[in-house]
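#random but structural
TW: two for the price of one
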Amino acid sequence: MKLLLAVSVALALGACANPNSYEKSLGGYTGAPESALIATLGEPSSVDEAGGVRYLSYRQHRAFYIPAAMPLYQPICPPGDCVPLGGAKGFMLNEQCTTTFAIEDGKVKDWRREGRACGG
């Protein structure tokens, strides 16, 4: 129970700061029972098995809108000849993160993360 609490606190504190903190919090799961991992993070997005190792994957997604940037105009130009400089259309930015834990003999042996949405 103490291990579950320690792992929960480590993940909660680390996930908010930055990717390096996220990685440090994930390191707290090494050696933890699979049941503690699932109790803390919930059911994984997917489970795979290969060579006696179970792989539990958790996926996160975030999306946000990047607003348009208005173009600049020359301060002095002949009427009707002002040409816009720069500017950009707005767009949606989608980021994902997949964190996969390798489980051997019922315990977390290793983990890895992929994506830009990890820990941010």
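TW: number two ↓
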Amino acid sequence: MVRQITFLEALNMPAPTMDIGPYITDAFSADGYCPEDERQALERKYAPILEVTDKFDRRSVSYQLSKNDALHSWLKYKEAFSAELVDILLDEMGAVPGDLVMDPFMGSGTTALACQMRGINSVGFDILPLSAVSIMAKANVMRYDAAEIARVIRDFRALKMPDDYAGRTPYITITDTAYPEFNERFIQFATDWMAASAYSALAKNLFTLCMVNALEGCSYTAKSGQYLSWDSRSKKVIEANVQRAKAGRRLLPEHRCREVVGNIQEAVTVELSRALSDIEAIQAGGAGDSGATIDFRQRSALFELPRMEGDSLRGVITSPPYCNRYDYTRTYALELVYLGLGEAEIKRMRQALLSCTVENKPKIEAIRDSYAETGARDRFEYIHGAIEANAAFREVRQALSLRKAHGDLNNNGVIRMVEGYFTELAFIFAELYRICKKGATVAFINDNVRYGGEIIPVDFLSTSFAEQFGFTAKRVYCLRQQKGNSSQQMKKYGRAALRKSITIWAKE
């Protein structure tokens, strides 16, 4: 008889023999300008558990594999990972119905939905209201009245906006003139119509999600890295070029985000029809009727985890915002404004998110106050002391400070961002260890980064923090497809391939 090997037994086995040389960083500081001994020590320490794998690829750790999936495609969330990846990790950690799995950065809810389909309970956090709308819509797939959704589609398709309707969808500075005139008016008209209707709360929320999912394709904008990219047909760009011409400045180049800007009524009808098709198929198959619960909390994991009961989680599967300067409050500005946020609310949200932009201010005092409120000041000092004692982290901060003095950073806020990013993650790692049961497994998806010629090994540095708080590092899955770094850095410092990894830790 062949005995099935458990996940923890498999993790205790050596990683498969393969050439990991191209995936080990041999120089962290361009031109040897800064000390890198501690980062090199991390490479030596964790190289034995680095596994270059074909289990996952770049599509697995992005939205690409989910964009045509039933349910998961209801929100185009570029930062999402695939349900297929979650299923593989759930299998590997041996999660079974009745277990509790957490995603502290829930995003569009892929971990929670994949767990629900398998009868596994989940809990998680996210500040963005996009998450609340998405998870409510998807988690209730078995509760929809398909006939009601069909009526919504019929009535919405027949909706006529009066010629003299004067409403306009709200905007903030960075979304002003984002839509053609008809779309700008019809978005608000349709929203008012739905709010005044007698449809159920579930149907109204699904309509909101379908509207949110259609906004970008019906606008003159596109999500592009850290910012919104603008179409040269937009009023914003046209007016900017008029002013540039008057001042004798070079005009903004011709650029189209898409060949055809969608009609919002047609686009939302398509989204609703696709959702109805998914609802009917899932309800007919009973795939979503597992009885598992999804406990979503629209709050920050950084401040909520310390308040949770210990020894309750079977596992964690998550992907935090990457340390890449991407500002979700800008790239998702259309969606956030549609959901009712104004300039001030978006600015506050930007500061509340995990520090991953150069505008983020330190949260350490707020974290200290939060621990003090619950009588856990000593625990704060323990965690903070461990962070400060991490030699590789100290080296990274020193290297970035040297690069700043040398004029190598294109924005000095990078230092504050990197310090805040790892400090906040380390507090989360410490609390996850406390909350996890013995035998629990944690999977974190992340990218390594480079700033000012300095490579930051996010995967190994995070793993070193996790070990400080008690986790055992079991495996670092590395995708075969490494990513490059910015053209500006390649031009100045040469190309450096950067790992994209899934770190696996266990509470033994």
